[in-house]
Amino acid sequence: MLTREELPECPVATTVRLIGNKWKLLIIRNLIFNDKQRFTDFLKSISGISKKVLTDDLRALEDNGLIERKVFAEVPPRVEYSLTALGKTLKPILDAMSVWGTDYKNSL
Questions:
Q1: pTM, 2 dp
Q2: Which of 2, 29, 93, 102 has its CA 20 to 30 A from that of 86?
Q3: Handedness of CA 20, 22, 24, 30 (dihedral sign)
């Protein structure tokens, strides 16, 4: 997890640093609408994302306390991702982005 000193002073810049690329936003979107997802679920539902980028972004979101990774002791191993309590607080931001995006598309 990043320390306070590593984060920008500006709160908007902090938010952008944590969730500010399109892939992280889409990962979070998936977890808001589906409580849990597996790695392959993300690959199927996020068009264009590579396995490497997905892995890196899942790790970053986990390191920053926004998602959690649960490994089940099965053969083959099963891993599920879900939002933490902190991650769930991002829902209003994504809801606002959805409304804005819909309004923008309707204005065209």
A1: 0.89
A2: 102
A3: positive
